[in-house]
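Quick entry between incubations.
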Amino acid sequence: MSAPLMQVRDLTMDFAGLRALSSVDFDVAEGRITGIIGPNGAGKTTLFNLIAGRFRPTRGHIRFADCEIAGLRPNAICRMGISRTYQTVRPFPGLSVLDNVRVALLYGRRAGALSHAEIEHEVLETLDFVHLRPLADRLAERLIPLERKRLELARALATGPRLILLDELIAGLTPTETLEMMETIRAINERGITVLLIEHVMKAVMGLSHHVVVLHHGEKIAEGDPAAVAQHPDVIQAYLGARL
Amino acid sequence: MSVTIAVQLVVNGILLGGVYALAAFGLSLIFGVSGVLNLAHGEFLMGGGLLVWLAWDLTGLNPFLLTAMIAPLAFGAGYLFEKGLIRPLAQRKEHVRLASAVLVTLGAALMMEDIADFLSLNTQYEKSVDLFLPTIVLDKVYLPSLKLVILGLVLALIAGLFLFLKRTYLGLAVQAVTQNRRGALLNGVNTVRINAIAFGIGTVLAAVAGGFEVVDTYVAPNIGLPLTLKYLCIIVMGGLGSFAGVALGGIIIGLGEAIVGFFQPAWGQTVAFLLLVAILLIRPKGLFGR
Amino acid sequence: MKRAHALLLLLVVLLLAIPAAPIESRTYVLQVLTFMFVSVVLAQSYDIVGGQMGYVNLGHITFFAVGAYAFGILFNLNMGLLASLALGTAVVVVFAALISYPFFRLRGAYFSLAAFGLVKLMEQLTINLGWLTGGSNGLKVTPGNRVLAMYYASLGVVAAVVVASWLIERSRLGLALKTIREDEEVAEDFGVPTFRVKAQALILSAVFPAIIGGLYTWYINFIDPNQVYGLSVALTPVAMAMLGGSGVLVGPVLGAVFLYLMQELIYTQTAHLHGAMMGLVIVLVGLFMPGGLVRLGPVARVLRRLGLTVEEA
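Done. Structure below.
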């Protein structure tokens, strides 16, 4: 078993008297899909915010590819190979779909390494992958929510990440859309990109993840493969009997 | 430097800061509730002061009484100002709204200053109300009781504002909107009306400060903008939404001006801005900002 | 050739030819145009930070003022026109780089306010450092008949700032500026080095007012704090950019031309209340034209026909 891509140790985050995360420890294996689940307020998005560099943790370490990244600026973390999507979708509203993706290519991990022509080619390819090519010139603020999620995905992929953080991508989708999105996420993983995803839709998380970490009130209460976690008494109690 | 001078400077500084803080509270209220920096705020102070002077010149009545009498007018002016000039901007994208608000309020400030200037043609430029009250002398420190009266009134008004915000339903609604607009809206608060009321109250505070100013020193058409800047320095320095921050900011700037003004008169006016930059460099959200 | 390019060429030829045209009061026309060019440069350069990046820099005029004074001081030391301009501009560039540190820690209204305070601060500094700047009495430079030279020089700067804006907009930097305008936090999440980009934009926006400020001093021979730091002077570039259309290439130019002509009209036709009338115009622009002329239906259509697309506000 190769060394984990990312190691989180003793990660703790306090916000003016509120402890959002408490001594969280886990590893993220390279090339796998790891799911983060837990009831609302468990600290999942805070975890993503810490990994992506939005906040500096109160205490703890995040090691990514042999580098300590806790407390680094978001743009440095992006260039190291981590990108993300957001719980409430945030594409650049006044920019076209093309420009949204172009920015990621121009400033992401491969910034400066691609020629003008290569960038244009990559942009279109990425849009094809998420089925947004026909909407290339549309302003992001004019997209419907599903299209915006796809755009966020395209933008996150365009940075050339080694690890991608997906925050509730499936929430609010119809069953058909859910299956499509799950396929897309698998396809991303098959390209070799490590996936860390937060989800509430249990079927999706359990169906996609190789490994699951469960948070509750900022603490990790369980970890393991989906089947085992589903049976774990603490997890069941935390969800008060949610059916899995 | 002797102790008496030092004490005198501190006293002057606090008095100065107190009046600044009063008007700054008004601006802070407006900013907190509506998110708009009313750059014409200082002009309302100027207008209030000039109006009090005019009434005093015509009737000879007690200027403090006159100040109380123009308060309702000031409320109306603020209310209408919000309704006509600020409300239309609410729906715009953030940076567009900011630029629009800047243009609208600064344009209004320009108009008000120029009109006051025009109306002041052929009269003395700086107007002041002459009120003679005894000076209290405490061991070589001079305390003009006029300034003490004003400071007393300022403190009373600030206390009144504080009670209003914490104890009345309207005040709580104002706080709610300041902290979380959507939340307040979802709880049934009429945020549109609160905006207008906040503007009204804020303008009253400015106009009353103007009434104090014309008695204490003087009021002239061109004082509006430098004062507005000073208030903005105070509230940015103190941190948005913080009552204590505005009070502290006012005192710091008042003291700073008094002290620097004593040693280097020409630099007194730049103190406010220099303090602002210094504090923002250390704490970008202000002293108490969230 | 595209219609827009043809029209542009025609306009340029026209402007270049005016000094030779046999019209009476030609000197007056040249002077009016020269001052209009100054306004255009200020509005267009402001918009790099104000429109493309979305930071309403109310302190933009300080670049003009410092450039004007720096030139005047250097020119009076007999450094010659070009050297004074170059060195004066360098001073402004350093100034812009230095202030970007504290100022870009602020966002939105806080930033705009601090920037506006900078104007007052610089004005006060200029008055207080009388031994250097002449204080409130102003600064004089040796006069000369410079009408024609100034006309072409300022036209050149207009061309330069328009071309520069255009190049920035199409470049990687321009895209970064837009992302900062749209969502600065997310921009950083996707690799944009926001602090560096903001500083670059500020410096670029400072170069052109610095040059035109120096030329301005050279041209009118006398500057004082009121001329270069006045409230109206500080606000006008912002009003012009918004009136014409902030964030769109030709917007500030259109706004500057329109507002400048209106200013000329007000000042020459009425005796009093100039400030109030300009104030009113500015209020009306703020209230009714957030998108600017360029985004008004008929105007936008014409621009599209010319091949200049305009996205909505």
